[in-house]
Design goal:
heterodimer, A: alpha+beta, Phosphoribosyl-aminoimidazole Synthetase, Chain A, domain 2, seven-stranded mixed β-sheet, 25 helices, globular, disordered N terminus, B: alpha/beta, Rossmann fold, two-stranded antiparallel ribbon, 27% strand
């Protein structure tokens, strides 16, 4: 019976202890197919064995939450019987090995999570991290290829890419981060569970044939550090086919529209094994899977290969036999291949049959919940983990020189060269595209000639993704809190109120005490930010083992936040041009800018160390309320929060505006309050602009947050009294060229 | 009036086109396997990635059953508008001259561009202002034709996003009833989403159909 040599399970990522649990649970040694399935379900990627305990600390309840962690995707109530589903997922390790397909299938995978709950994907965003693209040809290659891959998938499948963020730090050189987020829309009552139900029901596999691609991706790639032989791991990366997924997506959405299926689940990491076992586990049932019914690309595939293949564009659904013919007809209409591969049973076992012979049998609880969860052994580092980079800006550079360098630096330069490779407008909902506001804004109702008639509001959602590895390196806890604050600030500037948050926690090897410390501090910090600002975590993903022989990545907690705004016609813009010449510029909120982990410190060659400023929660909330209401009421056409690069960079960005759309380029004259470091960074304050000075004065009189008029929009130069004066056209050119020159 | 809007597998901008024409008339969805054009007054071949565009863009869609009906409809004088992938399909189907080559950047490009109406006397542009702000979004939009062609739309000076010959953004057939363009008028029908200039193209078609009805010069369906 012992046909599996002991070391084999170690190759599959299982420890001796875990293997012992498997033997105990089965009452015998596992067969090959069983071991393959168990090793994947018990991998970090699927089993979250090092993060599960910590993740439970995140707040997941909220008045608007419809689906929370544990479902294919979270979902929130946005009113009018509509639900918005959203989730972020990492595809870091595959993208580091094969950036085009890795990034493309990252998008494809997260889109499947969205339509698996019955929502039509209406937007996607991406948070990306690469090494120093100015210095590294490898990082430029990864950037170019992963951006092309994201565009290839998103553009072809007809889901707009409406936002995201990109940063470059040397620690990501051999371990880039590709975090893809998708957002979907459904009527509330159409959200569907993945829980299988109904003994005797058919299990139908829809979509692509199963091949040898992505065998062991989750365990081999996503649950171990990078080593020297990573080129050999290329076969573990999957290949994406957006055309196939488009057909599968339309097919699944029609099946749901017509109420023809009981449950739906996508095949993601660990393929068929994970998809089906999670469905039957949630439903408390068993499954008899007929292995020879699974359509294959290659006929000689081993049973374990079929069970763990991560071939893309496949969905599993549960169907009542009486509706099977109708289901198959819908699949045929959309040219999405579909076959019955098994039946729901009451055995509580996952049984695999081939030509009538039983070749695998695992109790479902052992497979899905048997994976042990570990306590981390966190320990703060005794010395800084990250070094500074070579200085690119002299310590005595003038403020004008400093601003010009910052605005052209890879981390702050215009993202247009990337965003213009994505379609942000398909589906006709996009009211604010990348570069036009701090958050993407989408209309919820279909826009037609009657939209907004007679002053009727047009409700919408705002979406953002944020994370700042440098700040999290300075202080893993406060840095994670800041990610939440920054994301919420972005929504607020668009005029939206946050409803829910999804996160992607990108960290190093949790089995190392310092990395465990970063992870546990990060989760604690995120918890605090979510509680502070009342944003529940509805979904998320953890990516660990982000290390290479050069060391770990910066701790990178990324958040994706969705909010609602009552009327998209009053969505804020992040350019002074939106308010127009003559508009008054106001600074709202209180800042305590510091250089620790700032973009300036990076350019000056300093390591990300020091202290982050504490937040005055009451003041931040009052500031956010003022900005949100001022934007919603139409007082402020312009709102932009102060973040990376600090005050001077925020002002420059407001002057530059949305160059891509030909709107922007307007000067400003401001006088900053005394004692504010124009290049230090803090969160919780914003610049606003309004044409109606009286309205600002009225707001200032009643506001619970500090609001002061500090200048006026107009002219062709940015003048910060006593600090600098620069031609806006020159700043815009430098900003536009900063990233573009690296991508030529 | 009725605008037929074709959906191939992989078409992405079909619902956008239906919404756009719905502002000036009635949208009638047409499926790639149906030969029946359901009595529509004009046909829109919308954008997207028909059949994945894994071969040459539009090369497979031209063989769809619906396209033989569209060719008959066009040859009888019916108005046909091909947008982006639809333009590529119309070229592949021989309804328009020339071809769309990969962008000179070899990258997908999205950009809001200004487009100049170089011929305001067509059924598609009669209601258009001289300059339209429209988005482009494509991988293969570089128009090329070895023969002289009738140019209706050109990218404004310095705004050519794909390297197309003579800044060509849209061309019309000799009979003046089939137009193909790379920019997306259906994504420019509401100032809220960036521009409403594209609406004038659909309004032009409606007016042209109205004239035909008034003068009794049918397109012979």
């Amino acid at each position: 019976m012992s046909d599996v040599a002991a070391p084999h399970y170690r190759e599959l990522g299982l420890t001796d202890y875990e293997y012992g649990l498997i033997v105990e649970g089965l009452g015998r040694e596992p067969r090959e197919v069983e071991l393959a399935m168990l090793s994947l379900m018990w991998s970090e990627h699927c089993g979250y064995k090092h993060s599960k305990k910590l993740l439970k600390r995140l707040p997941s309840k909220g008045a608007h939450v419809l689906l929370g962690p544990g479902d294919n995707s979270g979902a929130v109530d946005v009113g009018d019987n509509l639900a918005v589903a959203f989730k972020v997922e990492s595809h870091n390790h595959p993208s580091a090995v094969e950036p085009f397909q890795g990034a493309a299938t990252g998008v494809g995978g997260i889109l499947r999570d969205i339509f698996a709950v019955g929502a039509r994907p209406i937007a996607s965003l991406d948070s990306l991290r690469f090494g120093d693209v100015g210095e590294s040809a490898h990082s430029r290659y990864l950037l170019e290829q992963s951006v092309a891959g994201i565009g290839h998938y998103g553009n072809s499948i007809g889901v707009p890419t409406v936002g995201g963020e990109i940063y470059f730090e040397p620690s990501y050189e051999h371990n880039c981060l590709i975090n893809a987020m998708a957002v979907g829309l459904a009527s509330r009552d159409r959200l569907i569970s993945s829980a299988a139900a109904g003994v005797g029901n058919d299990v139908v596999l829809i979509g692509a044939r199963t091949g040898r691609d992505g065998i062991g991706g989750a365990s081999v790639l996503a649950s171990a550090e990078f080593g020297e032989d990573d080129a050999n791991k290329r076969p573990t990366v999957q290949i994406g086919d957006p055309f196939a997924e488009k057909k599968v997506m339309e097919c699944c959405l029609e099946l749901l529209d017509r109420d023809l299926i009981v449950a739906l689940q996508d095949c993601g990491a660990a393929g068929l094994t994970s998809a089906t076992s999670e469905m039957i586990s949630k439903g408390g049932v068993g499954l008899d899977l007929q292995l020879d019914k699974v359509p294959l690309r290659e006929n000689d595939m081993e049973p374990f290969e079929v069970m763990v293949s991560e071939s893309q564009e496949r969905m599993v659904c549960v169907v009542e036999p009486r509706l099977l013919d109708q289901v198959l007809a819908v699949c045929e209409h959309w040219e999405a291949p579909a076959v019955v591969i098994g039946k729901i049973t009451d055995t509580g076992d996952y049984r695999i049959l081939r030509s009538g012979e039983l070749i695998g049998e695992i109790p479902v609880p052992l497979l899905v919940d048997g994976c042990p969860v570990y306590d981390l052994a966190p320990e703060p580092p005794s010395a800084p983990l990250y070094r500074g980079e070579p200085a690119r800006l002299a310590a005595d550079a003038s403020p004008a020189e400093t601003l010009k360098t910052l605005i052209a630096s890879a981390n702050i330069a215009s993202r247009a060269p990337v965003f213009e490779q994505y379609d942000p407008v398909v589906q006709s909902r996009t009211v604010r595209r990348p570069g036009q506001a701090d958050a993407a804004v989408l209309a919820l109702p279909v826009l037609d000639a009657d939209s907004g008639a007679a002053g009727k509001p047009i409700p919408g959602i705002a979406i953002t993704m944020d994370g700042n590895g440098l700040r999290a390196a300075v202080d893993p806890r406060l840095g994670a809190t800041e990610a939440v604050y920054e994301g919420v600030a972005n929504l607020i500037c668009a005029g939206a109120e946050p409803l829910g948050l999804t996160n992607c926690l990108n960290y190093g090897n949790p089995e190392k005490p310092n990395m465990a410390w970063q992870l546990s501090e990060g989760i604690e910090g995120m918890r605090q930010g979510c509680i502070d600002l009342d944003v529940p975590v509805v979904s998320g993903n953890v990516s660990l083992y982000n290390e290479s022989p050069d060391g770990p990545i910066l701790p990178t907690p990324v958040v994706g936040i969705v909010g609602r705004l009552p009327d998209v016609r009053y969505a804020g813009s992040s350019s002074f041009a939106a308010a127009g010449a003559g508009a008054q510029i106001a600074l709202v909120g209180e800042l305590h800018p510091v250089r620790a982990g700032s973009q300036l410190a990076k350019l000056q060659g300093e390591a990300p160390v020091g202290e982050l400023p504490a937040k005055d929660l009451e003041l931040v909330c009052a500031t956010f309320a003022l900005v949100r209401d001022g934007v919603r009421d139409g007082v402020f056409a312009t709102a932009h929060d102060i973040a990376e690069g600090g005050i001077a960079v925020a002002l420059a960005e407001l002057c530059i505006g949305d160059v891509a759309a030909g709107a922007g380029l307007i000067g400003a004259r401001v006088e900053l309050p005394a004692g504010l470091d124009p290049f230090g960074e803090d969160l919780g304050a914003a610049f606003l602009a309004a044409g109606d000075g009286d309205a600002i004065a009225a707001l200032a009189a009643t506001a619970k947050a500090p609001l002061q008029v500090i200048g006026e929009v107009g002219g062709e130069r940015l003048l910060i009294e006593g600090l600098l004066e620069l031609d806006v056209a020159g700043l815009a050119a430098a900003n536009a060229d900063g990233l573009a020159r690296l991508l030529r | 009036m009725k605008f037929g809007v074709i959906t191939f597998p992989g078409t992405c901008d079909d619902t956008d086109a239906q919404l756009a024409v719905g502002r000036v008339g009635e949208a009638v969805p047409l499926w790639h396997q149906d030969r029946d054009l359901q009595g529509v007054d004009a046909v829109i071949v919308p954008g997207g990635f028909s059949y994945g565009d894994y071969l040459r863009a539009g090369a497979i869609a031209r063989f769809a059953p619906v396209m033989s009906s569209v060719i008959e409809f066009a040859n009888a004088g019916g108005f046909v508008l091909g947008i982006c992938n639809g333009f590529q399909i119309l070229c592949e189907a021989g309804l328009l001259p020339g071809a769309l080559l990969p962008n000179t950047s070899l990258r997908f490009v999205f950009r809001q561009v200004n487009v100049e109406v170089s011929d305001p006397n067509t059924p598609f542009t009669r209601n258009c202002p001289p300059r339209l702000s429209l988005p482009v979004k494509h991988m293969s939009g570089r128009y090329y034709s070895p023969e002289p062609v009738q140019v209706v739309l050109r990218y404004a000076a310095g705004e050519n996003p794909n390297g197309s010959q003579d800044d060509i953004a849209g061309v019309i057939n000799g009979a003046g009833n089939v137009l193909g363009l790379m920019p997306h008028p259906e994504h420019a029908v509401d100032a809220l989403t960036g521009s409403a200039d594209g609406l004038t193209i659909f309004e032009s078609i409606r007016a042209a159909v109205g004239d035909r009805v008034a003068t009794g010069t049918g397109e012979g369906q």
